[in-house]
Amino acid sequence: MAPAETPTPSAPPPSLEPAPAGTEEESALPGEDVVTEEDGVNPASPFPAEGAIYQGPMVDAHSHLNARIQPELLLTAIRESGLEKTVLFVTPSLLGKSSVLDDDRVVPFFHVGIALIAEEAAADKEIVRNIEQALESGKAKGIGELVMRHKRWPESLADDSNPADHPLILEIYDLAAKHGVPVTIHLRHEYSEELERALAYNREARIIWAHYGDSSPQLVRVMMARHPNLYADLSAINPIPGFRHPELAPADPEGNIKSDWRALFSDWRALFLDFPDRFVFGIDMGAREARYRNAPKVVEYYRKVLGQLPAPVAKRIAHDNILVLLGH
Fold this sequence. Notes:
Layout: H1 24-27, E1 59-65, H2 71-80, E2 85-90, E3 106-112, H3 119-123, H4 126-137, E4 142-149, H5 167-179, E5 183-187, H6 192-201, E6 207-209, H7 217-226, E7 230-233, H8 266-274, E8 279-280, H9 289-293, H10 295-306, H11 311-325
Parallel strand pairs: 1-2, 2-3, 3-4, 4-5, 5-6, 6-7, 7-8
């Protein structure tokens, strides 16, 4: 099916080039929730000293529950990581059935995998009906992860040809807006134009871009400036074994931030300060056992990263933002 038409921008798009240090573009974007002295933080003040660690509460906004996952292992990981809550993307067959969902630290979302977005599933709108029933019954508190454009893996469809602006997916965004719940999508940054059309389609739908699309801070900045309903999670962005994605701060293979350059990368630091209400922390515990066993190390890594931000910003990313999206 043909994607929705691309909306005509009302103003020239911001440049994808990073702004020179000290420019107006770097310090603030019109209409955004930039941290100011009214928040108790002077944006121009030095960041915390080397070795600072965020000690506040944390909510994991991105992890998984499916039939291959051992419930005891998952709950142990949540407890040992010191998480207040964990959003779990739950396969439909387990919604309302797994014992894990009885734990009050768990927030279930309705997971839609790649295979469920095939044309035959779209034909009778079964996915849309099932999601709506799960939301109305309270079995699901959100929607996600919608897996659309993913790197090749064993369960991928040919070419992962599931556009973010597919007509079926647009109906799911409408459901999220109708019920006031967030929807997390997996879409690689190469397909960001599809995401832009989706964001413009329904401004009431709050979309969380999983892993920020493995994108650059420059592209994320442009996208967030254009689309106030775009959020991004930081899940799986760390060097811990079992994850090993590009990290937010320089680290050794075990996830220890390097002592000779203990600094959050400057482009990300500026982005977090300019959009403090638009990022959420996540782990991405999934089918691989190493991700559960290493979850405490992942949390430790992010605590070091967040410790280099002003305390109010760190707490928003680690805890507050996802709870606001969930209506808590």
